[in-house]
Amino acid sequence: MSRETVDLTGLQHAFPYPRSSTGAITDLGRLILARVKESGPISFADYMAQCLYHHELGYYARPGKPTVSKKGDFITSVSVGSVFGKLLAHRLYKFWCANGSPKTFTILEPGAHDGTLCLDILQAISNFAPEFRSAIDYLVHEPLPVRRKSLQAKLQGEASVIASPNDCHAKIGALIANEILDALPVPLYLRSNDQWHEILVTSNAGSLDWGSWPAKPDLPKNLPEGYVTEGPPELSSFMTPLARMFENALFIWIDYGLDEEALYHPARTAGTLRCYFKHKTCAHPLENPGEQDLTADVNFTAVEKFATSLDLQIHPAMNQSRYLTYCGKEWLLSNPSQKEISQFQTLIHPTQFGGRFYALEMTKGNVDPASLI
Q1: Taking each helix axis from N to C terminus, what angle separates 116-128 and 83-98, rounded to the nearest 10 degrees?
Q2: Which of 14, 68, 133, 335 is the most exposed place for a label (fewest CB within 10 A)?
Q3: CA distances (Å), 134 to each of 22, 137, 354, in order?
Q4: Class of 1-368 per CATH?
């Protein structure tokens, strides 16, 4: 840790939520404390990775506990209903047709949670394009063993559940990644004494606490004292295997996020890192490790830069409202039910999912992107 005195007031402003007064700590918290005691402080990115993806005690290693639902901690576009999957199904169908309707078409969905989106997409395609359904090989990428088992039980052979895309190869296909990038662990930084410090997680009197050490991240230097923000996640280990799996493909990323100009605006002094617990955000990042969601806005600029290094072609991002409206042009003319129209309105409403979320498409290889407009 830094030997100089570092003013951590900026962290108190960024995360003003009260800490627990009971002294209770989760099983994962005890493991992290023991690790810190043995080996010293860990980076916040490492801490976030443990909180979300520890193979037994991480937040996403709990398939029996509701997380994405009205009874859980947050909702997604998938939670709204099956219309989200139907609209993406139409987008995939348009891409398949534009590229010669190949006899085999691989769809890869990383982080498919409970498999609902997968089933919604496949059911929609079966209903309006059975010839496309017969061509689909749907793969769900899930690294956590306990969640793979749960997915296999729910999908009932409709899709294959894989631990890694490294051994998979597809001549042509598509990737669907809904709210995945925001769950990649990010480093946390503080501007103090006119320099950047990386935030660490350490211990203090038997509880998890903040620490720091000097750092030189690729961040603006003209930001105010006490400024807290996140750096980009480590994208290589996540995106590279996904890109290498396909010779030709459409990649669809849907998430909330910002470009770097907005993300590192001087007025955004507290960053975007937040916790979700029972649909509330008033939770401290060091509280209840493994039992609350940790997330940060996607740095779309960093994602696009790295994708370019993988020889992916970047297409203009658009908000979810515009994107799903383009995807659903044919569907809207098919006389959807009032319930479906209500779901669609929720998905595109600017104060709900429509304005907060963005869709970023990329392509690889010699393909026709099948323009939405």
Answers
A1: 60
A2: 335
A3: 56, 8, 32
A4: alpha beta
The answer to whether residues 121 and 88 touch, using CB atoms and an 8 Å cutoff, is yes
- pLDDT, averaged per 10 consecutive residues of the chain (373 residues), comes to 73 86 84 97 98 95 65 78 98 98 98 95 98 98 94 96 96 98 98 95 94 95 95 97 98 96 96 81 88 95 98 96 95 94 96 93 97 75
Q: Name the residue type at position 116.
A: T
Domain-by-domain residue ranges, the chain?
A: 1-368
Instruction: State whether residue 99 is helix, strand or coil.
Output: coil
**Residues of 99-117 as b/e, b for ≥16 C-beta within 10 angstroms?**
beeeeebbbbbbbbbbbbb
Q: What is the DSSP letter of 163?
A: S
Nearest CA among 99, 366, 109, 167 for reference residue 247? 366
Residue by residue, DSSP assigns 215-234 as ---S--S-PPTT-EEEPPP-
Instruction: Say what the pTM is.
Output: 0.94
